[in-house]
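Fill in residues.
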């Protein structure tokens, strides 16, 4: 059965704090700037200059080198844009995400300051979500329970629902934090991939210019 959670005045304070979701817009704006600058580099590579340079090639060997260099450069551009565009795709953030391996570093932060993230309602993510699992289990048992057991189950379900209502502010806060964390991690990965793709662009451009600059 579910045990009641004492009233937690800290839950109301969460509504007065800045939402973690406020950082999502900044992360996506940074991604848009990255996409715009990457697209500008791609437009430069496909501009009139490279096409004019290709006209100076008079043998297949240099043509192959020039084509390979341009392909590598454009591959780097496409790679950077693909990885960065993932930041703009809204992630699906559900309570199950809070216990996923992908958020283990975020859970370490939760565990370092449980009073702030869980108040007196729980000490970890599992404890905070326990009331939902209790309510689900009771609801399943109600479908096949006898008359004598049904009364106790209904009382337990009512208690579980009260506990869910009391822990909901913290769950919503954690979900908002997890959402912002996921977007931030996507942006960090996109930056690393953009740096690596820039290396490809430089290598490809050097090879192309070497093949066409005779």
């Amino acid at each position: 059965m579910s045990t009641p959670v004492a009233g937690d005045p800290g839950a109301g304070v969460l509504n007065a704090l800045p939402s973690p979701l406020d950082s999502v817009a900044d992360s996506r704006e940074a991604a848009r700037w990255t996409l715009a600058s990457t697209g500008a580099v791609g437009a430069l590579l496909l501009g009139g200059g490279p096409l004019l340079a290709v006209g100076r090639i008079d043998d297949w060997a240099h043509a192959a080198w020039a084509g390979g260099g341009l392909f590598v450069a454009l591959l780097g551009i496409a790679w950077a844009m693909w990885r960065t565009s993932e930041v703009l795709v809204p992630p699906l953030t559900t309570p199950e995400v809070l216990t996923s391996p992908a958020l283990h570093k975020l859970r370490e932060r939760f565990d370092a300051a449980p009073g702030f993230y869980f108040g007196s309602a729980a000490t970890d993510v599992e404890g905070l979500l326990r009331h939902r699992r209790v309510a689900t289990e009771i609801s399943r048992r109600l479908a096949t329970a006898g008359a004598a057991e049904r009364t106790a189950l209904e009382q337990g379900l009512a208690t579980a629902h009260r506990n869910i209502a009391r822990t909901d502010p913290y769950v919503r806060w954690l979900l908002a934090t997890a959402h912002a964390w996921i977007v931030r991690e996507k942006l960090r990965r996109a930056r690393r991939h953009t740096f690596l793709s820039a290396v490809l662009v430089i290598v490809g451009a050097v090879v192309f210019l070497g093949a066409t600059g005779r």
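Helices lie at 10-14, 22-45, 48-54, 60-85, 104-112, 114-118, 125-142, 147-212.
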